Amino acid sequence: MACETDKALLQENIEEYIKDDNKVVTCKWLSLMHSIDINVAKRALHIFVHHQRNKGGNDDINVTFFVAGLGKSKDGDLMHKCAVVPETELEVVKRSLATVTSCHIFSVQKAKLKDYTPLYMTDYEVIKDNIDKCNRFSSIKCPWVSLKSGLSASKSAQQDVVKVVLSENKGHAFSNKTETGNDSPGSKTRALAKKVEPKGSITSMFASASKKDGGGNESSKPVQKTDAASKIKATKKKGGVTAFFEKKGDSPLKQKDVLLGKDSKKMDASSERFESNVTNEKKQDPKRKKKQAADADEEAPDKKRRRRIKTDLFDSSDDEDVEAGEPEEPEEEIEEMEQFEVLDKGIEEEHKMTEEEQKEEVDDSSLTKSAVVGKKRKRTKKVVSKHYEDEEGFMVTKKETVWESETDEEDEASVNKQEKKSHQSNTSEDMGKLATKNTKAKADPKGKAAAKKNSSPQKSKQTSLMSFFKKK
Amino acid sequence: MTEASMGVDILSEFVEVCIHCVLYSRGLYPQGVFEKRIKYNVPVQMCLHPGVCAYITNVVDSIKMLLSEGQVDKISVVILEENSTTPLERFVIELGSVKSNWTEKDPHLFQTEQALRGFLLKLSVTDALLHPASKDVTWTVHVHTQDSTLSAVDEQLVQKDFPWVEAEEKQQQMKNSRLVPIKSYNSDWLNMQLYAEESDKNS
Amino acid sequence: MIYSANPQPVNVHSFSTEAPEVNPDLKRVTSTVEYKNDRFIVKDRSFNRQFAHLYAERLMTMRKRLTAAATEKWGNTPIRKLHELINDERCIVIGTIFKHMELRPNILKEVSEEHNLMPQPIRSRYADTKDKLIIEDELQRIFVVGDLKCETSVTGVIVAVLGKEPEDDKGKFHVEDYCYQQLPTQVPRPIIDQDKFIMFVSGFELGGREERPFQMQMLADLVCGQLGDLDQQEATASICHVVVAGNSLSESTQDRDTLTKAKYLSKKTSAGSVEAVKNLDGFLGQLVTSVDVTILPGEFDPTNFSLPQQPFHQCMLPVSSQYNTLHRQTNPCDITVDGLRILGTAGQPVEDIYRYSEMEDRLAMLENTLVWGHTAPTAPDTLACYPFVKEDPFIVSNCPHIYFAGCQPEYKSKVFKGASGQEVLLLTVPRFSQSGTAVLVNLRSLEAQPISFHSHFPIVDESVSPEVDK
């Protein structure tokens, strides 16, 4: 696996974390921070403790262990027990077990722990930052895990995903800021840099860092950061926009690719997720017109870097340059505005996409026709929700309210998409069901038109929607 | 609910959590009187003794008033030797200016919450950096503020039957104290620093 | 195997020795999962119907099965409807049990309370020695006396009773013997040649006082292969599925106060349901990157209250819902894993039977529901339930291999053997918040084993307790 110098550096880093930074180092934290296999992390912690103990003298580190084995419950029944215990309790717990199946270091820290709270907090923070890949370095691989892809899935989850991304990347942006304190950020970056060096990839890091407007420059001051971030945002927007325009042409095809990818090869989960996020963002801010070249520039290095999981510096920087722009405030208002303008655009876009799909999905032609015909009609929520009820949790209702005061092609388009999805993902669904749905969809417009006349809840809904956007 | 008062709420709440955390980690009360509560999405320890709780609540309430009325520079939890009331350790929260435009920067308080979590994590492992906790100690809370600020809330405090007095000189002075930085946080709306001081005598 | 009564680990301490680094690339064991929950999906939400249809439907469906059982047991004894009863004739009656209970909460009594009549004591159980059993069919009802035990019977069970209505004691049916339905046949248990586990866990109760975040994290870490020595990891890789059987959120998250109060103001209160759901999402988000997870809602989870509870909405779990490995299902839930049928609930039916009977053993109640052929007999009487018209989805029409109830006070399991060779593993899944315990079931052998998670930090002994500074 890792070469000797790497190991030595890792040991140095661990020492630094524990002795200088007074950090709690759990095996999971170490594995995620250094992007190393969890078992390598466990071993590294063991070696560290071993060396520290061998040095003799002032032994100022405390160790907690993970112990598992067969024990007895209170009633005397056999049960498998797993426990995290401090070193002082280790023997007691081990003796209480009939067979010990596991025993390894869980964490090392300077403080004598009174309870699990610091351990939990340490892991909580690192998991939160790496929620999409928290098991990438675990020993068990689950090859079939993938993100649900497909147009309707990503579309329906759009609002949510964006929100989540926002919160996550806020975490990121923030972590840079806090590190400026006496939390010795410099040492950390140094440590990381040191770690990277022997692999000869440091140059590439700098290259990418400079390309990314200092995205990799972790210890930069907050002021600079805002600056950099907004620049990054601009680049990102560029990418998003061009991608959007490109998408106009061949998006259905692209989407197909993703679907195929899901089945055929084991795709990196996070990169796929990332892709879906990008797709969302593309839809979010397709307003600014920029050159296509920027897009290629943006996406290619991203993917490359995804593969290189050895250095967490890259990971963090790349999360950053994808999303770091968002929490910055000055841009936000513009974005809000945009989102509304986007609605019109989006509809046009959807319309085009519908036509694309029409070509592809011959058996749905009747439905798409109805979509094209059904223009300039408003619809009520009621009809829609009834339609979706038997499907599994689509968020379409929410989304549709967005388009409410517009033409309802979007609606039909999304219906169409939904059909598509059910074709692809839910093979067990029989054609009979689909057929009834088609007729339903055809029948809908009339009902909707009627509904529109005698009710106007849309107005009030609309305002609440605005506030929804503003909240972000 | 204005931004400013929300900021004050957040800060005073954090001060409360910090006090409990210090009491727990320095072993001022037996572990049995503490209970785990969830704060900032992570478990924290909270003292259940009604007397202690009431005291802390009063302290925090008055800190809240002080914060909303004016400038508070430092809030420190001072651990004193029981008989001589000489300070042994103190945990100091140093506050920079609290700006009011924070809702725009961090509307869902994600950053703030994460920062406060960071403080608590650091605080809970600070034990290792200090001398072993000594027995027979007591504690108190000092707030460093200005006369004008105090006088502004003095009346209210007296009404609440929880007046603050000027700290004794000897409670404030620490001989050969050693400073142990814990964590600092700088953001657009909040600058905060947490450190511990301990006197040499404690060894 | 590590997860058995006789584990034989070899590589313990493998990370504490200078042994050569072996990092086996462990693969999660594969399994095929099917869900047969269509019957539990409520399609048209119309609540202006009476519940009579449900009882009628239940009686209709079950009558066939009971007739078969009764004929087999008592031969050619005539089967009568209640209006056809002839005095002193020995006959079989098939009907629904109704338990007349004095203590059963009653809105009329509550109203009378307001008119300062006797107040009813608040109690958690409503069974009483004065309770009487009544049998109903489509038209009539009759009191039953005799062999049918009141303590172990609950309203809604379909039963066949053998006996007579004596001339000198009219209006009462004297029961000699009784029987329940015949358990439906079971598809033969597929032969699984390797150890393969399903983990059942319930009652995380996030957002409550009892929540155990660290233990949950340990569970996630163990299942995902972050914890344990090599052998343990290898064994863990054969956990093919995790079933989260209800009450992932605590009862206290249903507190309406937290909705109206802003987060930063809810001083000293536990986090509301928003935080709890977010935490649940985070937890599931870790699990689903490594293993298939089925989550069914429980009594306190944010979905509809009445059975069948509909799946969690994906918007509530934005992170974990993105993965193909998260399966949000109904409660009750009918899963088929590698050909093994698993049926179970988040425990409300058992809890309700506990309230309205004098049985103590949860596992026995669970067993009874299987014997009765109905997952939730007390619905819709005392257990909230959707007013079905055309069918009663809670009837056990296929005998499962594993039958579980979540959110129970303690872990228990046993193998139930049916009359025609059915073998069902009955399982009460304990509340994680109470016990820190999950259950592993080996699909190969249908053996169950609890697995518990602890952290064990000694309390520092304080000989002198300092005085309160006041």
From TrEMBL, chain A:
Pfam families: CDC27 (PF09507). Residues 245-284, 342-356 have a biased composition (Basic and acidic residues). Signal peptide: none annotated. Residues 175-187, 454-466 have a biased composition (Polar residues). GO terms for cellular component: delta DNA polymerase complex. GO terms for molecular function: DNA-directed DNA polymerase activity. It comes from the Eukaryota. Residues 315-341, 403-413 have a biased composition (Acidic residues). Residues 374-385 have a biased composition (Basic residues). Keywords: DNA replication, Nucleus. It is found in: Nucleus. InterPro entries: POLD3, POLD3_sf. GO terms for biological process: DNA strand elongation involved in DNA replication; DNA synthesis involved in UV-damage excision repair; nucleotide-excision repair, DNA gap filling. Its main location: nucleus. Residues 173-472 are annotated as: Disordered. This is DNA polymerase delta subunit 3. The lineage of its organism: Eukaryota, Metazoa, Spiralia, Lophotrochozoa, Mollusca.
From TrEMBL, chain B:
The keyword Cytoplasm does not apply. It is found in: Nucleus. One of its GO terms (biological process) is DNA damage response. InterPro entries: HORMA_dom (IPR003511), HORMA_dom_sf (IPR036570), Mad2-like (IPR045091). It comes from the Eukaryota. It holds the Pfam family HORMA. Keywords: DNA damage, Nucleus. The keyword DNA damage applies. Residues 5-196 form the HORMA domain. Its main location: nucleus. One of its GO terms (cellular component) is zeta DNA polymerase complex. PANTHER family: MITOTIC SPINDLE ASSEMBLY CHECKPOINT PROTEIN MAD2, MITOTIC SPINDLE ASSEMBLY CHECKPOINT PROTEIN MAD2B. This is Mitotic spindle assembly checkpoint protein MAD2B.
From TrEMBL, chain C:
Keywords: DNA replication, Nucleus. Residues 50-178 form the DNA polymerase delta subunit OB-fold domain. Belongs to the DNA polymerase delta/II small subunit family. GO terms for biological process: DNA strand elongation involved in DNA replication; mitotic DNA replication. It comes from Elysia crispata (lettuce slug). Signal peptide: none annotated. This is DNA polymerase delta subunit 2. Residues 198-411 form the DNA polymerase alpha/delta/epsilon subunit B domain. GO terms for molecular function: DNA binding. Its main location: nucleus. It is found in: Nucleus. One of its GO terms (cellular component) is delta DNA polymerase complex. It comes from the Eukaryota. The keyword 4Fe-4S does not apply. The keyword Nucleus applies.
